[in-house]
Amino acid sequence: MAKTVVLYPGLTVSHFVPMVHLAGTLVDHGYAVSVALIDPAVNGDPAFRAVVARAVASMPSVRFHALPPAEDAPMLSPDAPFVPRYIDIVGRHNDRLREFLCSSTAHAVVVDSLSVEALGVAKRLGIPGYVMFTSGAAALVAFVQLPSVLAQVRARFEDLGDAPLELFGLPPMPASHLLGEMLEDPESDTYKATMTSLDGIPEADGILVNTFESLDARPVAALRDPRCLPDRIMPPVYCVGPFVGGVGEAKERHECLTWLDGQPDRSVVFLCFGSSGYHSAEQLKEIAVGLEKCGHRFLWVVRTLFTDDPDALLPDGFLDRTGGRGVVVKQWAPQAEVLRHRATGAFVTHCGWNSVLEGVTAGVPMLCWPLYAEQKMNMLRMVGEMGLAAEMVGWQQGLVESAEVEGKVRLVMDSEDGRELRAAAAAHKDGGVAAWSDGGSSRAALARFLSDVDRRWQGRTRSAEAA
């Protein structure tokens, strides 16, 4: 009988998809996988519900179990603070998760990094509990240290402004580049919920990270150093990525891929800002003017909350004037496929970690335009240590002007600096391939994780027999 691992994925696309990729990997290694699902309807984003539906339909070897709805459970919505609402939803489902685990033979539970409260459910049942951290190792280094660093600096992070924050294992980082939730009033529910969640991550029996060691060598080494968390014991960290790409196959090939087929190699700039990346009408016009003036081919995914017709927000005649060399896609495009296409030459990204990994594994140089979450932290590493990206600096003032869009696109596509970015991107692409090859670091990390699961389960069995 196959050993069973229960996965408890997150409630957003960026957290759910890597967990589903982990499910497929575990099945490939002979494990039975059950995925416990909080009702996807708690997330008002139809894109999330669609991704969950595709996963259920396309993975018959994985058992998806819908937890009974919790009474009076709130919904995630743009008009409510995200983190405290998210944690409230998870907490209200703890009893449902416990009932499911009691009815199954779980050898281990892997919970999303925003659902660490659920670790307590597994531990009370004597089941090994792990965290799936869906960002990179550098963000993990920062997150596990920040609760104790706050006590040392004796100031609100917001009050530090751009003052450099010193964290073990990382270059100095402006305090303003932290998660937005950490820059709020320390007495607010959002701040307290965020810090409590981060503080719970090291309580896991181990942490799986969606990265590979050659990409995150310095922060991975820091996570294994006792100085990273001097007053606590840091659990083992397993770099098991890169998990990239979507879930399930589309019924039809997206028309933007057909357009790319007709373009020269590495000639197209791809602009996409994630499943929740929106820009103001003013910003959309600045992007459009910059793309028109730069003269390069482009594929631009436009998401907007203001209208069902984003074309109406673009400058008059823009689509006609650029129709021969540019395409505007509404709401969604198959990002991983676009990035892997031979015609794609650069990627303008919000620096969400899934997007970073998709750019890295495609070997595409990037232009960084962070919007929210840990994206500013990711940007610092992409531009600095990784050396595969340049920064759109206008985001810091709240508006990237057309001249910068034009200039940065030309930099990455035409200049010697751009060729250096491309070379660095190609080197990291090779590292991603090597990580899952025979003898690769991610393959070895997964083997260590599975060995730890088996060891802990055997220890639990022996204890039960002795009792």
From TrEMBL:
<dbReference type="InterPro" id="IPR050481">
    <property type="entry name" value="UDP-glycosyltransf_plant"/>
</dbReference>
<dbReference type="InterPro" id="IPR002213">
    <property type="entry name" value="UDP_glucos_trans"/>
</dbReference>
<dbReference type="Pfam" id="PF00201">
    <property type="entry name" value="UDPGT"/>
</dbReference>
<dbReference type="GO" id="GO:0035251">
    <property type="term" value="F:UDP-glucosyltransferase activity"/>
</dbReference>
<keyword id="KW-0808">Transferase</keyword>
<dbReference type="GO" id="GO:0016757">
    <property type="term" value="F:glycosyltransferase activity"/>
</dbReference>
<dbReference type="InterPro" id="IPR035595">
    <property type="entry name" value="UDP_glycos_trans_CS"/>
</dbReference>
<comment type="similarity">
    <text>Belongs to the UDP-glycosyltransferase family.</text>
</comment>
<protein>
    <recommendedName>
        <fullName>Glycosyltransferase</fullName>
        <ecNumber>2.4.1.-</ecNumber>
    </recommendedName>
</protein>
<keyword id="KW-0328">Glycosyltransferase</keyword>
